[in-house]
Amino acid sequence: METEKKTQTTAEQTTDMDLSEQIKKVTKESHVRAENTEMMLSFQKGQVTLPQYKLLLSSLYEIYQALEEEMDRNSNHPGVAPIYFPAELARLEAIEKDLEYFYGQDWREKIVVPAATKRYCHRLRQIGKENPEFLVAHAYTRYLGDLSGGQVLGRIAQRSMGLKSGEGLSFFAFPGVSSPNLFKQLYRSRMNSVELTEEQRNGVLEEAVRAFEFNIQVFDDLQKMLHLTENHLQNSSTHSKPVNVKMLQIAGTTINTSPLIRIVLGLFVALATVSIGIHVF
Known about the structure:
With about 280 residues, the protein is mainly alpha-helical. It is built from twelve helices and four strands, in the order H-H-H-H-H-H-H-H-H-H-H-E-E-H-E-E. Helices cover about 65% and strands about 5% of the residues.
């Protein structure tokens, strides 16, 4: 409630600004918090590991599946149509390609995601049905974050994990966008053209703050999964008898840990800052 009141107050003070500028202003604090999560700091330092990358990629798959299905379903909605660019921005197919590269053809049976990812996806489904215009907040936060940091983060991931050019890094590539800067200008222009009532605009701004909060929660849950897996492997190696752990529970999420903790739970990090979605707008 406190966050919503603060967001609404800020919105009232910036009613003469474009929607993109308003979102940037009301999410400034959340943006900084997202960039300073343990996961994002390790990425910025060029310390991305393959387990981290795979785990994050798994959550991104679930998130983008929900977002893009709702965007497709509401593509003719007046609050979605102006910023609907599937050919240029859609990430789901690229993520599927990367997951198959890392996990094999049966990757759907191997990936695991934390409770925070499920909550994020539930919210996307909910607003897709009840308030489609709120999707603009999530689309803007994720897609422009990915587009802004994609090339740089892709190179960091490639060097950190020793991957060959392009292998497992399709997520960072936007072949349909020849000039990221020009496209971002176009996207903001289209976004600012969306007609919203004052109540809807305030709702979109609150949703933008919520989008950052969801991403922060996902980052934190993924890092907990990573630490828990590392601790389990360390404990197993220091005991004469293997630790018989069938399931791990993290923030309400139950995760099957065999075999070898699902190959270290499939761990991953590449969030084009918030990533992989939360970098530079």
